[in-house]
Amino acid sequence: MSCVFRSFGRYSVTIEQYAQNVMRESCAAYSGGLWDYYELSNAGFYMVPTGADTYQVSRSNYFEGELSAEAVGIMVTLAAIMTAWGRYEIDLMGLRYESLIDYAREHAEWPLIRAALD
Q1: Which of 45, 54, 66 is nearest to 115 (CA)?
Q2: What span, in angstroms and rounded, lies between the C-alpha atoms of 17 and 68?
Q3: pLDDT tops 80 at residue 5
Q4: Using CA atoms, how far apart are residues 38 and 41, in angstroms rounded to an integer?
Q5: pTM for the complete prediction?
Q6: How many CB atoms neighbour CB 57 within 10 A?
């Protein structure tokens, strides 16, 4: 069983698709590719694109900046979870969001991740 399915159950494909859509919308140079998946000890989860070490990000909230692959992965996963949470209104999304945001706040690039999401 994949860690995406363990984290999101029947919404696992939805989360993956939402994350890839956010990535396409946020990173002009992104044209698809493989992703690594990470499960956190606090029940969190995030995906990281493997195509580059860093990505130039341009968001609709006027954020522009360069993020590491890990930071952009955290950002797009958080955005995907927020989208799914708003659409499906299930508690699972809120729990996964809180777990990942707790992890993200400790990341060296947290100020950039937060700015990209605001």
Answers
A1: 66
A2: 21
A3: no
A4: 10
A5: 0.93
A6: 23
